[in-house]
Design a protein that fits this description.
This protein is of the alpha/beta class and 319 residues long. Helices cover 36% and strands 14% of the residues. The strands form two sheets. The chain has an eight-stranded parallel β-barrel, surrounded by six helices.
Length: 319
Amino acid sequence: MPLLSRDTPRLGLGLAALGRPGYINLGHGQDLGPGKDPAALEARTTEVLDEAWAAGLRYFDAARSYGLAEAFLGRWLHARGHRAVVGSKWGYTYVAGWQPLAEVHEVKDHRLATLERQWPETQAALGQRPDVYLIHSATLETGVLDDPPVLARLAELSSQGVRVGLSTSGPSQAATLRRALAVRVDGTPPFSAVQATWNLLEPSAGPALAEAHAEGWTVVVKEALANGRLSARGLSGRGDVPASLQDLAARQRVTPDAVALAAALAQPWAAVVLSGASTPDQLRSNLTALALKVDPASLMDLIRPAERYWAERSALNWN
C-alpha cells in the first residue's frame, strides 16, 4: 500500500532540527535564535508544521532522541485535528539535558529493553501509534539485525499493521540494507521501510534503495541537503556550495537546496524526501523543489567517496 496518496507532495518534514536545541545542521543555532527553551522551540515547531501542512505536506518524521519532537508533533496534530502519516524511530536516547553544547547528546542501544521502553514512550508522546517505526541508525556492528528477540518483537508490531523498518547511516548503508532485506522471522520478512541518507555528495546507497523499492519497501530519503552543506548557507566557514550546484540553481532561479532536494525527488525509488527545515523561510525555499526537474547525472562531479563524506559529517559540530 502506498505511504501517501497520489496527489500528496512527496516532500515530508523531519523534526530532528526542531525538537531539541542542539543539532549538527550548519547554522542551526543561529537559525533558532536566542530562544531555545522548550516553549520557544514548540512555538517554532508549530509554525513550521503549520507552513508544511498548508503546502500539502502529510509525512512527518520524529524519533525518541529528537528531544521533544514527538511530543511537539503529537500536541500539534491533536490541537489542529489533522490526520497525517507519522514516522518515528527507536534505539537512541536523548541525554543532552536541553543543553545545545552538551558533551553527549544521544546514546545508542539496540537491545530489546530499549525497544520495549521506547515503543510505549513514542505512543504516549505522539498520542497515537506511529505509522512507520524504524530502528534508528541500524548498522551491522550493533547486531540488531541478528537479534532474535528484537526481530520477533518488530515482527509482532508489523503483524499489527505498523510499517516496520530501519534507518541507516555511515559508509556501509548499502550492506546494512541488503542484510535487512534478507531478514525473516518464521519465514516472513518483518521489514517494509527504510530511511537512508542520499544526496548529491553521497549517493552510494542508491542501488540498494532501488532493490528495497523493487521488493515493495517504502523508501524515505533523509539528509538530502547533507546537514546544510548543500543549502544556500554554504559551508559556514568550510567553503561554499559547489560551483556546479550554484550555477544550476542560478539558471533555474532557485536556491541550491531546492536543486538538491529535486535531485532526490527525481529518484524513482524515493517515496518521500525529508526537508529538515527549522524555519518557515527554509521550508518555503525547500518547497520550490517540487516544481523543479533536475537530472542528478548532471551533477555527478559533486560525488565524494563514501568514507570521506561520512568522516566529514562526523566532524560537524553540534550547535
